[in-house]
Design a protein that fits this description.
- It is a single chain.
- The protein is globular.
- The protein has 18 helices and eleven strands.
- The N and C termini lie far apart (81 Å).
- The chain has an eight-stranded mixed sheet, with helices on both faces.
- It has two domains: 2-177, no CATH class; 180-197 and 210-535, Alkaline Phosphatase, subunit A (3-Layer(aba) Sandwich).
- The protein has 540 residues and is of the alpha/beta class.
- Helices cover 46% and strands 9% of the residues.
- Strand 10 (506-508) and strand 11 (515-516) form a beta hairpin.
- The mean pLDDT is 88.
């Protein structure tokens, strides 16, 4: 019997060693994704603290063993997500679980990884520092706890356990913003503007009411376009023919916030299909006599269908018979074909048109749908999907320039948000450093036949500025509730046009520097955002 007990104790000791060796290896592996030694400097001492706590609790009451296992689980789960996703778990990730199918084959890796973590966490453990008195273990634990408290300020986002805690803090703040009551009419008045910025005269060679094609590409950071490997040669050439804005950042993440936020120049509270009842670029253009249409490339996605219906366009265009991409979405070749056909048809009408599209094929985890259209040898899915997009964008631009559309149509090319900097992105661009997985510089190009190439440095302003910039360029004026400013006015500024905000991060991009807001800045910003959200409830 005693031999059996000894063998059982030996197995539990071995399993405990395996658990913590696994955690150490996973921590070191995460560095291959982040390339940031701060995660190691903060993470490994935190793991040591968990190891000490584990030894104090594992051989005691069940409730204390569960606490020990929970701390270990949080650490390992966070490191696993960091390894795959280049950040710890965020509120934005949790709120987008409903779109798990959009991860394609990547979802399988996440599910298997989660299963592995759970299996290791719940392996039976045992105290393995047997010869050390528990009272002595208290000393290093206290020292490590002091270190843990010390990193709470500037370095808490590098801490696996503290970052996990911020998810709950973010959710509490988020719910407070949703519940807080502000007078809607007063809030509406706060953000009301009688007119738009007028910082530039409309180019003389543009027709009075040009057609407008606005393209939102899924997750495209600017570094991909300018990469020396020529991943997107057609788009790079298009930039050289366009008016382009440098050091321009996304204002939010993910798509549902990004597209609506740019069209309305405002933040979106939820990652859902609910619309915005304020003034948008499409509603202003409709008042100017434009036919407004949006192309839905995900006609089998009920959430996205309702989202498109609530964007405020007069028409939603779909082609469900030509949907052969991943996650029941159109491939980029199908999307650009529909865009060209729709623009040609709309040009036959008596009204100028505003036609917008969001293309889906460059979504994280997707690969090229065509094995004959790959980047170099086709071994890198990240580079493949952007190369594929570029090929069909090039075909669209060639056809557009050869058509009558080119004589009276401007193209606005941009993205819904920056490319998510997960492990595969980081590996594909090893020499490009990102300070936040969700925030980066993004493209904004304006093109029409005969335009002179020009670059404007906007010094960290963000995509809330899209709508006021385009309307300023066209000399269209309107009352509005825009949070952004015209990029043509270097002196114009608001509290929002260089602040990134989603469910997880509050980041300043002012002066092209990524800076996480301090607690007092966060509180001040959220109070203003609360007022804006309340304005959405007001009667106009």
């Amino acid at each position: 019997m005693s031999k059996f007990i000894k063998e059982k104790e030996s197995r539990r000791t071995l399993l405990t060693i395996i658990k913590f060796v696994f955690a150490i290896v996973l921590t070191l592996l995460s560095y291959t994704t982040t390339k940031d030694v701060t995660y190691l400097i903060v993470g490994l001492p935190e793991l040591l603290l968990i190891f000490v706590i584990y030894n104090l609790l594992v051989d005691t009451k069940v409730i204390f063993r569960l606490i020990a296992d929970l701390l270990f689980f949080i650490y390992v789960a966070q490191m696993l997500v960091l390894y795959f996703g280049n950040s710890y778990v965020t509120l934005t990730m949790l709120k987008n679980v409903q779109f798990l199918k959009d991860l394609g084959g990547r979802a399988v890796a996440y599910i298997l990884g989660t299963a592995l973590v759970l299996a290791i966490v719940f392996m039976p453990g045992k105290r393995i520092i047997n010869k050390v008195n528990k009272k002595i273990l208290i000393i290093p634990m206290v020292i490590l706890l002091i270190l843990e408290i010390g990193i709470h300020g500037a370095y808490k986002r590098y801490s696996p356990v503290q970052s996990f805690g911020t998810i709950f803090a973010s959710e509490i703040r988020y719910q407070q913003v949703k519940r807080a009551q502000v007078n809607p009419e007063l809030a509406l008045e706060t953000y009301y503007k009688a007119s738009l910025d007028d910082a530039i005269a409309k180019p003389d060679d543009l027709p009075e009411n040009p057609n407008i094609i606005m393209i939102f590409t899924e997750g495209l950071s600017y570094n991909i376009i300018e990469d020396e490997r020529s991943i997107m040669p057609n788009l790079a050439a298009f930039e050289e023919e366009s008016l382009t804005f440098k050091n321009y950042y996304n204002h939010t993440f993910p798509t549902l916030r990004g597209v609506q936020g740019q069209l309305y120049s405002g933040y979106k509270l939820d990652d859902n299909e609910v619309g915005n009842n304020l003034i948008s670029i499409q509603s202003i253009l409709a008042n100017e006599g434009y036919n407004t249409s949006f192309i839905n490339v995900e006609p089998f996605n009920d959430i996205f269908n309702e989202y498109c219906d609530n964007l405020g366009f007069e028409n939603i265009i779909t082609d469900p018979e030509n949907v052969h991409g991943e996650a029941d979405g159109m491939t980029d070749s199908e999307a650009y074909r529909l865009l060209m056909d729709s623009a040609t048809e709309l040009s036959q009408g008596d009204e100028p048109f505003f036609l917008s599209i969001y293309t889906f094929g460059t979504h994280v985890s997707f690969d090229t749908p065509d094995s004959n259209c790959v980047f170099e040898n086709g071994s890198n899915e990240v580079l493949n999907r952007f190369y594929y997009l570029d090929a069909y964008l090039g075909q669209f631009l060639e056809e557009f320039k050869a058509s009558e559309l080119a004589d009276n149509t401007i193209i606005v090319f941009t993205t819904d948000h920056a490319t998510y900097a997960d492990q595969k992105y980081s590996n594909a661009f090893p020499d490009y450093r990102r300070d936040c997985t969700d925030v980066d510089t993004i493209p904004l190009f304006i093109y029409y036949k005969g335009i002179d190439h020009q670059e404007i440095d906007v010094n960290g302003k963000n995509s809330l500025c899209l709508a006021p910039t385009i309307l300023d360029y066209l000399d269209i004026d309107s009352e509005n509730y825009f949070l952004g400013t015209s990029l043509f006015d270097a002196k114009a500024s608001t509290d929002f046009d260089s602040t990134f905000y989603d469910a997880s991060y509050l980041v300043s991009t002012k002066d092209c520097s990524i800076r996480y807001l301090e607690d007092l800045e966060v509180d001040d910003f959220l109070s203003q955002v609360l007022s804006y959200y309340t304005a959405l409830e007001a009667d106009r």
